[in-house]
Design a protein that fits this description.
heterodimer, A: mainly alpha, two-stranded antiparallel sheet, 4 strands, B: alpha/beta, Rossmann fold, 2 domains, seven-stranded mixed beta sheet, five-stranded parallel beta sheet, 37% helix, 17% strand
C-alpha cells in the first residue's frame, strides 16, 4: 500500500481521534457546541451523499431530518419505547419517507427535482401542524430527561451526550468513507459527472439515485433522531424550509463531494453565527457576506479547495 | 547560620516548602493577603448576571423590541434602588432568532460561557419548549415570560418558572363568564391552526361549556393564509359571539374582510389583543372593530382610574397614555405582555434576596425561594395588578382586563378576579429533584 493510498484512511482516523480527544481539553461550552456540530454534521453528510456525490440538489431534506426526529419522539412519548428502539423507528421513518419521495421525485430532474422535493417537505411540515393533537404542532414537545437513558447512562450529561454524538458521527463518517470509495460510491460520482455516459456503460442510474436518496434520507433521519434524543426537544421548526437550506449551505461551505467538508461547513457556520450574534443582531448579514466571499474566492468550499490545491487524495 | 562542620543544611527543601506553604495558608486564611482580600471584595460586588434571551430577529422581533425596552428599564430601576443583595445587575442579552434550536444554544451559552446566574425573558412557546430542557439539565433557573401553558402543564422542569405573566389557559378561562353573561352563549371561534390557536379552542370550549354556553363551530385558519373570505361562510347564522385570536401580519386583512362580510349587522365580537399587539387600534381598516371587545393583559390605553403604579411603569419604559413610544407615536408597544418582563425581574430580585443568593451555587435556593412565594401586591413591582403565585405549578395567576373599542380607544369594561382564572394543579414541580 502506498503512502498516498493510506492518506485517506489516516485522515479519517485522525479526524475521529481529534474529535474524541477534544472533549478532554475543551471548556464545557465548546464541548457542548461540538456535540451539536457532530450531530448536525451527520445531517450534512447525509445531504452530501445526494448533493455532493450524486449531483442531486434536494430542497426537502428537512423532511427526513424531521421524520427521524418525530419517529423517535413520538414513539418514546406515545408508545413508551426506550431510546434504542425509538432511534430505530426514527431512522426507519426517514428511510421510508425518502424511499417514497425518492420514487416520485426522481421522475424529475434539475430544477424540477428541487421544486418537487421542496413541495414534499412543505407538505410534511403542514402534516406536522395538521396533526397537532399528537405532535403539538409548532410548539413541539419535550422528551424528558428521565426518559433519555441508555443502559443507565443519562444522555443529557455532558460526557454521555458528547460521546453519543461522537459515536453517531463516527459510524456515519466511517460508513460513508467506505461507501464513497466502494463501487457504489464511484458509480454515484460517475452519475454526477455524466449520467448519460453512466447509462451507456450499463448502469441503471435511476436505481442508483434512488438508493442514494434512501441512504441519504436514512442518515439525515439518524441525525434528527440523534438531535431529539440528545437535546430533548422535538419541534416543527426543524421541518421548515430553513432546515432544508442549512445542509446545502454547510456542504457548499465545507466542500461538496468531500468527506470532511460537511463537518468543516457546520463548524464554520455554527461559530460564525455564534460569535457574530454576540456582537450584532445583524449576524445573518455577516453570515451572508461570508458566504458570498467564499463563493467568490473558494467556490469549491474549504475542503474542496484543499483537494484542488494541496491534497488531491482527499476523499 | 548553617553548621558548616556538620555539613547539614539548616533548611531542607521539603521543610522550606512546608514552611512557605503553611505561612501563606495561614496568612490567606486570615484574609490579610491583599490578593485574597481583593478577590473577596470583587466577589461580593460582582454584578448579578442575567442572561436575557431576546427575540431580536424572526417572527417575535416586534415583541422582542419592547421586551428589551421594558427589561432595560426594570434593570435600571433595580440598580437605582441598590441592586440585588447590594450587587448591581448586569444584563447579558443575546438574540435567539425566535428559533428553538438557537434558543437552546443561547441558554447553554448563558450557563457555560457567560456564567449567568439566571436566564430570563423568552416569549414564544416553541422557543421556551426548545430551550427549557437545556436549562433544566444545566440547572440554570429559567424565568420565561411566555403566557404559554407549557410551564403549568408539567411538560417542562423544576428550573423553569413563569412568575410574571399569566398563562393562556388562565386567561381564556377568566373570559368565559363575561362572554356568557354579557355577549352571548352561542360562540363561533376563529383561530390560527397551530398550537396557540388550539389552546384557545380547547380551553375556551371547556370554559364556555362550564358557563352553560356552547361553541357552535371552530374554524381553524392555516398560518400561511392571506385571505379569509372563504372561511366566513362557515360561521353559523345563529352565532351570538364571534371569538377571534388571529395573529401575524395578515390580521389587518382579516379584520377588513370580516367587516366586508358582516356589514352593519354582525354578532358580538370578542378577540384577544394578541392580534393587534404593536398595531395602532386606529389604523385604517380597523374601524370595523369599534364596539367589539378585547382581552387585554394590561390596558394599553391609560384609563380614567389609572393606578400610580401603571403611571410610573409607563414613564420608566417610555410609553405614552396610548401605549406608544414617547419618542414615536407610531411605535406601538406590546403592552399586554411586556409588563411580564418588569414583574419577572422583580420576582427574581425578591427571590434572590430571600434566598441570600451569592452565586450559582445558590441557584437551587433561589428556585425554592420563588416556589415559596404566594401573594404579590399591586405595587411598583407589579404594576399590572396583584397576583398569586402557585409554587407547585411554577405559574402565576392574576387579573385580566376586558376592553371595549370606543372611537378608537380601548376602554376597560370589566376586570376579572384572580380566582376567575384559576384551575386545578396539573403538576407539582416541588416533588422533582433540584
Amino acid at each position: 500500500m502506498t503512502g498516498k493510498s493510506r492518506a485517506p484512511n489516516l485522515m479519517v482516523f485522525g479526524v475521529l481521534l481529534c474529535l474524541g480527544l477534544l472533549f478532554l481539553v475543551l471548556p464545557a461550552y465548546h464541548a457542548g457546541n461540538l456535540a451539536r456540530i457532530m450531530v448536525l454534521a451527520v445531517y450534512a453528510m447525509g445531504y452530501n451523499l445526494l448533493f455532493g456525490y450524486t449531483g442531486l440538489l434536494s430542497l426537502g431534506h428537512a423532511m427526513f431530518f424531521a421524520a427521524g426526529m418525530y419517529g423517535l419522539g413520538l414513539s418514546m412519548t406515545g408508545w413508551g419505547l426506550s431510546p434504542v428502539p425509538a432511534f430505530a423507528v426514527g431512522v426507519g421513518a426517514a428511510t421510508l419517507a425518502s424511499a417514497i419521495i425518492g420514487f416520485l421525485a426522481l421522475r424529475t430532474r434539475g430544477v424540477a427535482f428541487m421544486i418537487v422535493t421542496l413541495m414534499f417537505a412543505q407538505a410534511g411540515y403542514l402534516v406536522i401542524l395538521y396533526f397537532g393533537a399528537y405532535t403539538r404542532g409548532d410548539e413541539g414537545f419535550v422528551i424528558q430527561q428521565a426518559d433519555r437513558m441508555i443502559a443507565g447512562i443519562d444522555l443529557s450529561g455532558d460526557a454521555a451526550r458528547y460521546f453519543t454524538a461522537f459515536i453517531l458521527f463516527a459510524v456515519c463518517f466511517l460508513g460513508l468513507a467506505w461507501l464513497v470509495r466502494a463501487p457504489f460510491g464511484r458509480t454515484l460520482i460517475a452519475i454526477r459527472e455524466n449520467e448519460e455516459r453512466a447509462q451507456m456503460l450499463g448502469y441503471d442510474t435511476t436505481m442508483y439515485k434512488l438508493r442514494a436518496m434512501i441512504v441519504s434520507g436514512a442518515i439525515s433521519g439518524a441525525a434528527g433522531a440523534g438531535y431529539a434524543l440528545l437535546f430533548g426537544y422535538v419541534g416543527a421548526t426543524f421541518a421548515t424550509v430553513q432546515y432544508s437550506i442549512f445542509p446545502l449551505l454547510w456542504v457548499l461551505l465545507g466542500g461538496a463531494g468531500t468527506l470532511i467538508g460537511p463537518l468543516v461547513g457546520v463548524f464554520f457556520m455554527f461559530y460564525l453565527i455564534d460569535i457574530s450574534s454576540a456582537v450584532t443582531s445583524a449576524y445573518m448579514l455577516i453570515a451572508g457576506l461570508a458566504l458570498v466571499l467564499l463563493t467568490l474566492f473558494a467556490p469549491q468550499g474549504f475542503a474542496g479547495e484543499l483537494r484542488k490545491r494541496v491534497f488531491a487524495w482527499l476523499p | 547560620m548553617s553548621d558548616i562542620k556538620s555539613n547539614k543544611p539548616l533548611f531542607t527543601r521539603r521543610a522550606t516548602l512546608k514552611g512557605i506553604g503553611s505561612g501563606v495558608g495561614a496568612v490567606a486564611a486570615t484574609g490579610v493577603l491583599p490578593g485574597s482580600l481583593g478577590f473577596a471584595q470583587a466577589q461580593s460586588s460582582e454584578p448579578i448576571s442575567i442572561g436575557f434571551q431576546v427575540h431580536r430577529t424572526g417572527i417575535g422581533a416586534a415583541y422582542g423590541r419592547w421586551y428589551s425596552r421594558t427589561t432595560e428599564a426594570a434593570v435600571k430601576r433595580i440598580n437605582d434602588m441598590g441592586g440585588i443583595n447590594g450587587r448591581p445587575v448586569k444584563l447579558v442579552a443575546e438574540d435567539d432568532g425566535t428559533d428553538p434550536k438557537r434558543g437552546a444554544e443561547v441558554v447553554e451559552k448563558f450557563a457555560t460561557q457567560y456564567n449567568c446566574d439566571v436566564a430570563f425573558g423568552t416569549l414564544f412557546s416553541h422557543v421556551v419548549i426548545g430551550s427549557a430542557p437545556r436549562a433544566g439539565e444545566l440547572k440554570l433557573p429559567y424565568f420565561v415570560v411566555s403566557e404559554g401553558h407549557h410551564v403549568a402543564s408539567g411538560r417542562l422542569n423544576r428550573y423553569t418558572l413563569q412568575p410574571g405573566i399569566t398563562d393562556v389557559k388562565s386567561q381564556v378561562k377568566a373570559m368565559a363568564p363575561f362572554v356568557a353573561e354579557n355577549l352571548g352563549k352561542k360562540v363561533t371561534m376563529i383561530f390560527p391552526d397551530f398550537a396557540f390557536g388550539h389552546d384557545h379552542r380547547d380551553y375556551f370550549s371547556a370554559a364556555i361549556k362550564a358557563q352553560g354556553g356552547e361553541v357552535l363551530e371552530t374554524i381553524a385558519v392555516p398560518p400561511t393564509e392571506t385571505s379569509f373570505t372563504r372561511y366566513f361562510p362557515k360561521i353559523p347564522r345563529d352565532t351570538e359571539v364571534l371569538y377571534h385570536v388571529m395573529v401575524g401580519p395578515s390580521v389587518l386583512t382579516f379584520v377588513k374582510e370580516l367587516g366586508e362580510f358582516f356589514g352593519p349587522s354582525r354578532p358580538e365580537i370578542f378577540g384577544f389583543i394578541d392580534s393587534l399587539e404593536a398595531v395602532d387600534i386606529r389604523s385604517p381598516g380597523l374601524e370595523f372593530l369599534n364596539g367589539t371587545y378585547f382581552w387585554e393583559g394590561n390596558p394599553r390605553h391609560a384609563q380614567a382610574d389609572q393606578s400610580p403604579y401603571d403611571k410610573n411603569f409607563r414613564a420608566a419604559v417610555g410609553v405614552d397614555d396610548r401605549g406608544a413610544s414617547l419618542s414615536d407615536s407610531k411605535d406601538v408597544s406590546t403592552y399586554s405582555h411586556m409588563f411580564g418582563c418588569w414583574e419577572t425581574l422583580n420576582v427574581i430580585k425578591k427571590g434572590m434576596e430571600t434566598a441570600g443568593y451569592q452565586g450559582p451555587a445558590d441557584r437551587a435556593k433561589l428556585i425554592e425561594a420563588v416556589e415559596a412565594m404566594t401573594d404579590m401586591a399591586h405595587s411598583d413591582d407589579h404594576p399590572q395588578g396583584a397576583k398569586w403565585f402557585d409554587g407547585k405549578t411554577h405559574q402565576v395567576f392574576g387579573h385580566q382586563y376586558i376592553s371595549k373599542v370606543e372611537d378608537g380607544n380601548l376602554v376597560v369594561v370589566h376586570t376579572t378576579s384572580i380566582e376567575d382564572g384559576m384551575y386545578d394543579d396539573e403538576v407539582d414541580y416541588t416533588t422533582r429533584p433540584l
